[in-house]
Amino acid sequence: MSAGEPLIGGPQPPADLLLRDVHVLDPRAAIDARHDVRVRAGLIVEIGEPGTLDVEQWTAEAARGADGGGIEELVDGAGRLRLLPAFFDPHVHLRTPGQEHKEDLLTGTSAAAAGGFGAVIAMPNTDPVLDSAPLLRSVRDAAAREARVPVGFLPAITRGLAGEQLSEMAELRQEGALGFTDDGKPVRSAGMLRKALQYQRLCGGVLALHEEDQTLSRGGAMHEGAVSAALGIAGIPTIAESTMVARDAALAGYEDGRVHFQHLSCASSVEAVADAKARGFRVSTEVCPHHLLLTEEDVRGLDTSMKMHPPLATEEDRLALIEGLRDGVIDCVATDHAPHARNEKEVPFEQAPMGTTGLETAFAALHTGLVVPGILELSLLVERMSAGAALFELPTPTIAVGERANLALVDLDATWVAGEHGWESRSENCCFAGRTLQGRVLMTLAAGAIAHRDRALTMVGV
Amino acid sequence: MNHLISIEDLERADIERIVAQAERFAEVSDREIKTLPTLRGRMVLNLFYESSTRTRSSFELAAKRLSADVVNFAASGSSVEKGESLKDTVLTLSAHKPDAIVVRTPWAGAAELVSRWCSAAIVNAGDGKHEHPTQALLDVYTLRQRVGAIDGSSIWIVGDVAHSRVARSNVIAFQRMGAKVTVVGPPTLIPRGIEQLGCDVRYTLDELHTADIVYALRMQNERMSETWVPSTREYAAWYQINGKRLSPHQILMHPGPVNRGVELSGEVVDSPQAVITAQVQAGVVVRMAVLYELLAGSREPRPVASMAGSRAA
Fold first, then answer.
1. ipTM of the assembly?
2. Domains and CATH numbers, chain A
3. CATH code for the domain of B169
4. In chain A, fewer beta carbons within 10 Å around the N or the C end?
5. What is the pTM of this model?
6. CB neighbour class for A3 (10 Å; exposed up to 12, middle 13-18, buried from 19)
7. Is A233 on the interface with B (CB under 8 A)?
8. Is B87 touching A (CB cutoff 8 A)?
C-alpha cells in the first residue's frame, strides 16, 4: 500500500562504465569468475569474457542528454579487483532532523557509499522523532536532494518512542515507510507490541525491534561480566536482550506477525531466534560487525568508541554470533552506524552516549577479522552484507544483465589504517579507528550512479 | 611513577617503597614542627566532583606538610554547574600550571582521561566505583603498623562490594601484598565476575572466624531505597560486624564514615581491635608519600600524551 519508491536518493547522473577484467562474485547469481562488465546509463548491459569488451563512445541520444556524447569510463581490474553486489545496511542513524552536528543525509550516505553500501535504512530516533507522515515526507524530500545512496526510512512504532500510543502506521506506509521501529528503545509493553503486530495486518511493514528489558539493563554502561566487575561499572546482562527476543518472538508467532530483531549481541539471543525460526515464526535478525569482532575485553581501556548498545559481550557470545551468521539463523549484517560528535564522546565512559560509526569500516573489518583468517567464506560474507534488502521487501542487489547497477568494486589486498585520512561521516567515533584493515572499497555504484570512488582508483577515459 | 591512577599499575615493590616513605614521614608528624620544605613552590590542585571532606582534607594536609601550595576546586558552585565539560575544566585549570592534580569523580576512568589532557601528575582520589588507590595504600600501611607483613593473612571484605571503589582497590592491593582476600555480602551487592580479580566470594559470615582481618564497607542508605537489600534491619542482622561475630584475634578496618548500628555495631567501633582512627592518621602520611613519589625531584614538565585522546590500535 506504500506510494512511490520506498528507497529515495539524490539526483545522480547514471553511470557509463566499462569494468574490464574484474573478478565478479555474486553468490546468489552463482558468478565467481573474471569478466568484463559494461554499465550503460546506470544499467548492467553486458557481461562478457575478460578482455573481450571495448570502450564504446556514446552519442547524445543514446542516454546522456543533449550536451554531447558520453564516453565510457574504463576501470581495469587486472583480473584482481572484485566486483560485488553493493552492500545493503538495514540499520543506520543519519541523525536528520535535529542532530546534524553528528551526521546528516549527505555525510551519512557518503559514509555508506565509501563502505560499499548501495542503500541504507535510517532509524527514527531523531529530534523530533520520525513518527508522522508530514515529517517523513520532509526527510524524504531532503533525501531526494542530498542522499548519495538511496535511503529507506523506518518511522517509529510508537509516538515519540514513548511506548504509549501507536504512530499512524497506515498513513506512514502510504508516505513510503518501509516498516517501523522504536530503535534505541524497546517496546516495553507486550500489549503495545501486540497491538502493533495486529495493526500490521492492515498496513504491512516489518517491525524492527531493539530488544532490551530495561528493568535488567537500567544504569548499565557495558556488558555485565568480569570486565565490568573489575572496572566497577554497572553491567548490562545478556538476558536483558535475550528474554525480550524470546517474548517478542512468542508475540509474533501468536499474531503471525513479521518482526526483525535488531543488532543481536549474545549467544542466548541467537538461541532464542533459532527457536523461533524452528517454530516457523516470521522472524529475521541482523548482527553488527563490532559484535562479530570485538568483546568486553576491548572495553577495558574505557575508550568511549567501544561503548554501544547492546554492549560488546564475551568471546563465547562473539563465536555464537559468527556461527549464527554462518548457519543462517542470523540473516544479514547491519552496522548500527551511530555517529556522535567528538565532544559528546570525549567524556568519561559512563557519561558517554552509546554508539559507534560503522559504515566505512564494515566490510573491511569483517574481511580482515573473519575472511582473511579463514573463519568465514568471502562469498558468505558478501551474501550476508546485502541480504538485508529482501528482509524489507526490497530487491536484492544482483549482478546480472538488465539489473540496475548496484555494485561495489573492492581491492581485497589493499591495507589501510581506519580513519588515517579522516572519515566521510561527520563523526569519528569508530570502534575500529586506528586498526589496520585489509580490503578497500574502490568504487560504489548505487541505483545506477557512481556514489563513491576512492582516490586510489585510477580511471582511464578513452 | 608519573601518576597514581590504579593500584593495578603498582608492583609490590612500588607499594612497599611508598609505605616505607610514609613511615619516614610519620616520624616527622610526631615532631613539634610538622612541616617539611620538600615541595616548596609546587602546586597541588584538588579537583573534586564529589563531596568529600575526609579525603580532600587529608590530601590538603599532606600537601601543606610538604610546603606545597594547595588550590581546591569543587565542582559544586563552579563552572561545572554551568555545563563545562571535564576536559574543558581540566584545560582551564591547567593554565595555572599545577604540578599535581588530585581528582575525584563519580566516573570510572576519569582520572586516566585527565592524565591525557594535561601535563600534571595525576592522583586518582576515587573514580566512580572503580578505584581509590590511596585508600588501599593507607590500608596496607595501617596493617603494616599494626601486624607487620600480611603475607598469608586472610582478609575478609564485608558489605556493598558492587558500589565500592575501596573494595576493588583493596582486593588488588591486599593480594599483591600476599594476603588471601574473600569478599562477602548480599548476593545483590556482589558483582558477577568479581572472582576473576582472584578473590573468593561468600554470601554469609558463617566462617568469619577464619579471617585474620575484617574490613567492613560502608552501607549507604540509598541502596535500601533502590531495593538492593530488603531493609537496613535485615542487612544488619546478616552482615553487621558486632561483638558476637568479631573474634578477639581479629583486626577490624573501615574506610569511614561509619554507620554505627548498620555495618558495624558501636561496641566494635570503639574496641581496641578497630584501627579506624589509625587509618585516618595513615591517610595523611601515605598521601605525603604519594605526592613525594610523584613530585620530588621531577622539575621537568611532563609531556602531554595526546590531546586527541588515544585509540586502541
1. 0.89
2. 88-391 (3.20.20.140)
3. 3.40.50.1370
4. N
5. 0.93
6. exposed
7. yes
8. yes
